Amino acid sequence: QVQLVESGGGLVQAGGSLRLSCAASGRAFSVFVMGWFRQAPGKEREFVAAINWSAGDTDYVDSVKGRFTISRDNAKNTVYLQMNSLKPEDTDVYYCAAGISWRYRRLENQYGTWGQGTQVTISS
C-alpha cells in the first residue's frame, strides 16, 4: 500500500510559478509510474504529466509542454511538478497518483493510489 501526500498549491498571478510536491510512503518500491492530473468542477479529470520512477522518462499533455516539468527525488520518494508561466486556464485541483503501468500512464483508471488534491488558482 502506498500513501501520497501533496503540498505546494496556492494562488499566484498569471505568469508566475508554483511547485507541487507529492511524497510517497509505505510500499513505494512497488510504484512504477507517478502521474499528475487536474480537475475543474464539472469537468473530467485531465492528465497533466507522468514520470517513470526508475528510468526517469517523462510525458506531458501538449498544453503544458515547455511550461511544466515533472521530476523525482528517489531518496525522498517524492515527485515534483514545477509549473512556470502559469495561465488562468491552469486553475484546477491537482492530484498526484501512483500506478504500475508506464504504457497506460495517461489513463487515470490504471492508478491505484491518489493524493488528496491541492488547489491551484491563477489570477489574471
Can I get a quick summary?
By secondary structure, the protein is mostly beta strands. The protein is 0% helix and 53% strand.
Q: How would you sum up this structure, described in words?
A:
The chain has 124 residues and is mainly β. It is 0% helix and 53% strand. The chain contains no helices and eleven strands. It has strands at residues 2-7, 10-13, 18-26, 33-39, 46-52, 58-60, 68-73, 78-83, 92-99, 111-114, 118-123. The strands form two sheets. Strands 2, 4, 5, 6, 9, 10 and 11 form a seven-stranded mixed sheet that branches. Strands 1-3-8-7 form a four-stranded antiparallel sheet, with no helix packed on it. A hairpin with a 4-residue loop joins strand 7 and strand 8 (78-83). The chain is globular, with a radius of gyration of 13 Å. The model has no long low-confidence stretch (mean pLDDT 94).
List keywords for this structure.
124 residues; mainly beta; 7-stranded mixed beta sheet; 4-stranded antiparallel beta sheet; 11 strands; 0% helix; globular
